[in-house]
Amino acid sequence: MRGIHSLACLGVVVGLNSGCALSNLKEANQRLKQSNDRLVAENNRLEHELAGLQPDLPVGGMPEATAVTVSAETERYQDPGSDIFPGMGPDQPVVTRSPIGTHFRFDDRVFFALGQAKLSRRGRAALDRMARVLNEQYPGNMIRVEGHTDDIPVRKVRHQYPSNWELSTARACTVVRYLIESAGVSPQQVYPTGFAYYRPLQSGKSSSARGQNRRVEITVLNQQI
Questions:
Q1: Which residues does 13 contact at the CB level (< 8 Å), separation at least 6?
Q2: Whole-prediction pTM value?
């Protein structure tokens, strides 16, 4: 009887420890989420301050045309980019300008399959051209590679990307690695960031809006190295 009582006590202790461990993990996860939210808010604040300090410098061959509004961003002016990327067809980026710099916006399908962060052959070809533009026209500028998703939760690849935060950041990191390791962009010049679905181009839950919100943006900042 004493042995059975000891085993029962041991089971209670193990159960209590498991419950405590789960509670601690949940608390740690909540703290990390709150910290990440603060970092995103601080990043947005600093970018707006930078926008107010930097002059709106002209970019050759890029007319100020149709204005589009982006959540948490300043007003941008859009250009199809055909003069910069001749012959790319549907894979060429949309080029926009804002007070913080020049933005090259690619549809996510140019680089990645749905829910994936493995760079396609089509994406490598697009980045080779993008790297030539960066190295020739912006050799001294800081470059931010942004991953953006739609608002549909990650499901099929949840074991690999628990949320759209991880997926958007993984895609940005994939692009940065290729630019550095295969296309000759300086590692001191470029860095990745993931915004999940918190900077949409279009509101709403239509397939068209979500398709536009899934994208990779390469932003050449006015900031110099």
A1: none
A2: 0.66
